[in-house]
Design brief:
Layout (H helix, E strand, L loop, with lengths): L18 H20 L7 H8 L3 H7 L3 H18 L9 H18 L1 H9 L6 H21 L5 H24 L4 H24 L2
Length: 207
């Protein structure tokens, strides 16, 4: 469940929200996420989301200031569900863990490109709630990647994760919007890991 405090520019803040309101908010997010799994963002009607969540349309807008705000929360929820379903083994090398994590991120967007499209669409939003949640989404994604670069040290791990996240975003944009291939997304991202592989192996052997 998303835990980011909200409220700027409309929308009830999560901080201090009673359990029954959190449950209602979660129903709205779940209904919106399910809608995006079935259809494109532009096809989704907020009134339909409210109906599935069993809340009045006005009630939905008490929790979310806009459709964009709601789907910024949905994007976070989708990412959190993906992380919860990921298993990591310390028996594998740092390189293998990085590749597995990277492939998982790419495959998630490959299977459901509509979530990547929402991620890109929200970049142009002027809603402060959306900006806050988008920043948290990007930070969370990079932090997740940085976990498997940790053997390089904190600063180097953060830099490597930032670069890899940028590569993934750039290549996914080419594949989803400009007719590129998903195979090329994997190839370029894997090539980046190839370049770091000797450093990862050396760092893992350091005392």
């Amino acid at each position: 469940m998303v835990t980011q405090a909200q409220g700027a520019g409309g929308g009830l803040p999560l901080e201090g929200m009673p359990a029954w309101q959190r449950a209602r908010r979660q129903r709205i997010v779940d209904a919106a996420l399910a809608a995006l799994q079935r259809q494109e963002y532009e096809q989704i009607q907020i009134r339909d989301v409210a109906q599935v969540a069993d809340v009045a349309l006005g009630t939905l807008y008490r929790y979310f200031s806009s459709k964009e705000h709601l789907y910024a929360a949905v994007l976070q929820e989708w990412a959190a569900l993906g992380r919860a379903g990921t298993t990591r083994s310390r028996r594998r090398s740092a390189e293998a863990r990085v590749r597995a994590r990277m492939h998982g991120v790419i495959k998630a967007f490959e299977r459901q490109p509509q979530f990547y499209k929402v991620h890109m669409l929200l970049q142009s939003s002027s809603d402060p709630n959306v900006k806050a949640l988008r920043a948290e989404f990007a930070e969370s994604a990079q932090a997740m990647l940085a976990e498997d670069f940790a053997v390089l040290g904190a600063d180097r791990a953060d830099d490597a994760a930032t670069m890899l996240w940028s590569i993934i975003n750039t290549m996914l944009s080419q594949a989803i919007y400009h007719g590129g291939s998903m195979a090329e997304v994997y190839r370029i991202a894997d090539r980046f890991i190839d370049l770091l592989a000797p450093e990862l192996a050396e760092a893992a052997l350091a005392p």
